[in-house]
Write a structure and sequence with these properties.
Elements lengths: L10 E5 L3 H14 L4 E5 L2 H10 L2 E6 L9 H10 L4 E8 L4 H9 L4 E4 L5 H12 L4 E2 L1 H11 L5 H4 L2 H10 L5 H8 L3 H15 L4 H10 L4 E3 L2 E3 L3 H25 L9 H15 L6
Parallel strand pairs: 1-2, 1-3, 3-4, 4-5, 5-6
Antiparallel strand pairs: 7-8
């Protein structure tokens, strides 16, 4: 199988913090696309600079935390602010449901399962992606189908807002610190924390931190804490708030002056309840 001439990438950027893995990827890519210029980066800052200063045809990355940031947030900026690469391939061994779902929502062109598939299949996947075809490893698709159908999946149990708060308090932050970071009241954070304990069946703060790390909400690195996909959660929350504010504004505008913000049906019910309380009980 040969790569169509018009699909041969000229500039390829690789982001891998593991230097040995990055070199293996570089050799595979260089052998397949011998005429391409391959740029290897070890941090999201280096990768973003390379993407901005070159017309990248293919961006290959993993999902492991780098020394300075989160790959998912970089992909979010690429997807929503400025398209920095023509095609994107993620090579990963991670299986956290929320991370894979985030890649799906971001419209990533390829996700290759480094645990389940051989290097030969990686070459086929690269050819597919550079040929404008979407490639997701069958093992990844099956994993998403199986985990996603379970009612106990964290993704289904928690709202976007709860997941966003968990991403912050999941590193051990207290309610006051989390409130400052999210721009919310301490009472709100405390309330969400109690709800998280109830839904997830944990009793102690340490158990919540452990669960957040296991499910990819936080990642502890030598350089500090990384919150994979936090920008996506925050953006979804802000969009929902903006939509709710728009609906409320339209409702207020549609109301005649002076009328209360209570639907007529509820007004009738409230009036009936008030009248019932003021009448003496009828004895038979």
């Amino acid at each position: 199988m040969t790569t169509p001439h018009n699909a041969v990438p000229q500039i390829i950027v690789i982001l891998k913090a593991d230097q040995l893995y990055a070199e293996i990827l570089r050799q595979i890519v260089q052998n397949e696309f011998s005429g391409a210029r391959v740029i290897v980066t070890a941090s999201t800052t280096e990768a973003e600079l390379a993407l901005r200063t070159s017309r990248c045809d293919l961006f290959i990355t993993g999902l492991s935390a780098t020394s300075d940031g989160d790959v998912l947030d970089l992909l979010y900026r690429h997807n929503h602010l400025q398209k920095l690469a023509r095609r994107i391939m993620v090579v990963t061994s991670r299986r956290e449901f929320r991370l894979l779902t985030a890649l799906k929502n971001l419209g990533v062109d390829g996700v290759f399962d480094a645990l389940a598939e051989s290097p030969d299949r990686l070459i086929a996947a690269l050819r597919a992606v550079t040929g404008n075809t979407v490639y997701w490893s069958p093992s990844i698709i099956e994993h998403l189908r199986r985990i996603g159908s379970a009612t106990t999946t964290l993704f289904r149990m928690l709202t976007n807002f709860e997941q966003m708060v968990l991403s912050v308090i999941g590193d051990g932050s207290d309610d006051q610190s989390a409130a400052l970071e999210l721009g919310l009241s301490t009472a709100t954070i405390c309330s969400v924390r109690r709800e998280l304990h109830r839904k997830l069946g944990v009793q102690h703060r340490g158990a919540l931190v452990r669960l957040a790390a296991q499910h990819g909400f936080v990642r502890f690195t030598p350089s500090g804490v990384v919150r994979p996909g936090f920008a996506l959660l925050a953006a979804a929350h802000q969009a929902k708030r903006a939509k709710r504010a728009t609906v409320v504004a339209k409702f207020k505008t549609a109301l005649p002056g002076g009328l209360p913000l209570v639907p007529p049906v509820l007004q009738d019910r409230a009036s009936s309840c008030h009248q019932a309380k003021n009448f003496p009980a009828v004895r038979n």
